[in-house]
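We were asked to recover a plausible sequence for a given structure. The inputs and outputs are reproduced exactly as logged, with field labels preserved.

PROBLEM: sequence recovery
POSITIONS: 102
GIVEN STRUCTURE:
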């Protein structure tokens, strides 16, 4: 089953980019979602920036997603059919971090 996503990417300089995409099989797999986001937002693919993935709960709070369980909660609590996420860059990676991700 295909699922629709709407994602806002906010860079360090506060410029934003909004993208919509569909995907099958993401489910509650954060690694797969991060791979998909990297293909949709090329600046994430370079690995130069740390980033956080968030969603907005029904109280209007931005909730950070750090693992599969967080993603499962987000997907359960959000009202579909379009799932909305926010990506914020949190600074450039240090040289040591870049080497360990290559």
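RECOVERED SEQUENCE:
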């Amino acid at each position: 089953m295909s699922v629709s996503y709407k994602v806002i990417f906010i860079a360090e300089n506060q410029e934003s980019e909004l993208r919509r995409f569909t995907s099958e099989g993401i489910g509650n797999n954060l690694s797969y979602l991060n791979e998909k986001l990297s293909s949709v937002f090329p600046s994430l693919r370079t690995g130069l920036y740390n980033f956080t993935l968030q969603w907005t709960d029904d109280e209007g709070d931005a909730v950070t997603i750090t693992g599969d369980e967080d993603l499962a909660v987000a997907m359960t609590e959000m009202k579909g059919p379009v799932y909305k996420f926010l990506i914020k860059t949190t600074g450039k990676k240090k040289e040591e971090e870049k080497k360990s991700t290559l």
